[in-house]
Amino acid sequence: MSQWLNQVIEHASVPSDFLATVRQQSRETLQQQGWPGRRAESWRFTPLTSVAKREVKSATDVTAQHAPEIDGLNAIELVFVDGKLTTDCDKLEVPDGVLIATFDNLSEAEQQRAAKVFGQVKPEHHVFGLVNDVASEQGVFIDVADNVTLEKVIRITNLVSQDVDAHTRVAVNIGENASARIVEHAQGDTPSMTTAFVEYMIGDNAHLEHYRFALMAGQAKQIGGSHFALHNGSTLNSTIVGYGSELSRLDVDIIHRGEHADAKMNAVYLLAQGELFDLHSNIEHTQPNGTTEENARGIIGDNARAVFNGRIHIHRDAQKTLAELNNRNLLLSRKGLINTKPELEIYADDVKCAHGATVAEIDEEALYYLLTRGISRSKALVILNFGFIQELVNQVPDDAIREWLLPKLSERFTRMEVK
Question: Phi and psi at residue 80, in whole multiples of 5°?
């Protein structure tokens, strides 16, 4: 076991609240399971040495900060700074039928609903998910009641401003026939170590429009997950944008627990020089008539390393499933590296499934064409990069978020240029 994990387990206290049993089980599993080495398949290409040798550090003098502004976004804002919730949930203006509250401020009935989400969607043995179970101090429960359509976006922002270990946790329940839009936004570049996990229970015929912006950079280390359970007739539309940093890892799990559930996931990851980004996705079709469409595209800069592992598992009873997984990658340099592994595991015999992966380099003829038209190399690379991901960017459902993304991606591309 690593020094860091030993300290996490030692420092973590299990409060005597409604989640105590789950937290204690996670602590015991951590002690038995130990640290994932390079022989662990899910961590083969993502070294954890910098985390294993780290000393656990607590936040000091946390100052409230505003979430990054997105023009035109009508949002209910939840802001964590260095792992501490700086938003007063009691002062949030939320419509009838919507609850946003910390775990320690729930009624008995609300605790029962939150307990059906916490630790019930993400994988049981994800080591950093277990760390988050035992080390997260201030969890938040979001509950959208049956038949409620939430017009405002809920944005959960994690800002990291100092060298700190921080762990944030959110549990979300979307009731039957309800609809919500939720944004997860992480940002920071300090030499920190953070985990951020959100679990979603999506009820029958409910809809969730989801975004995760994993925008850590520099020396930041963040490992997190977005985990979804879909029930009869529910729909999920998820957009993920990830930057690279010293260590950036995101796990996405989508479990089809009901019939006729529909999931769509578009992911874009952009790595500048020397950065690492790891995206693991796992789709479990356990019931018939489900559909999944997953598209992931990555642009990898000089000496950068990307990892993509996408798995779709069709269970024996999941007949009439339609599922497709596609991963495309663009290398800006021969020194860039992508380890991609799309997987299909099928046990039903009446399904339509496909998967594929490609790795390519910048088209030198197209670049030469733009240069001969008087376009600078930097601008030409931005144009070509945008072309590679534009199809997915155009599919972002929210106009305000899409317009906010475009200049941010353009700025990111200028940092990725190979000199």
Answer: -105, 135
Instruction: Identify whether the C-beta of residue 282 lies closer than 8 Å to the C-beta of residue 313.
Output: yes
Instruction: Point out which residues pair with 184 in neighbouring strands.
Output: 156, 212
Residue 58's CB: how many other CB atoms inside 10 A? Answer: 10
Beta-strand runs (E) in 138-234: 139-144, 149-159, 165-174, 179-188, 193-202, 207-216, 221-230
* Angle 133-77-226 from CA coordinates, rounded to 5°: 35
Structure letter (DSSP) for residue 258: S
Question: What pLDDT score does 167 carry?
Answer: 95
Determine the Cα–Cα distance for residues 275 and 251; give it in Å rounded to an integer: 18
* pLDDT above 70 (res 336): yes
Cα of 363 vs its chain's centroid, Å: 31
pLDDT at 309 over 80: yes
Average pLDDT over residues 277-285: 98
CA distances from 73 to 158, 300, 302, 335, 400 (A): 18, 30, 34, 39, 6
Q: The whole model's pTM is what? A: 0.96
Amino acid 419: pLDDT: 66
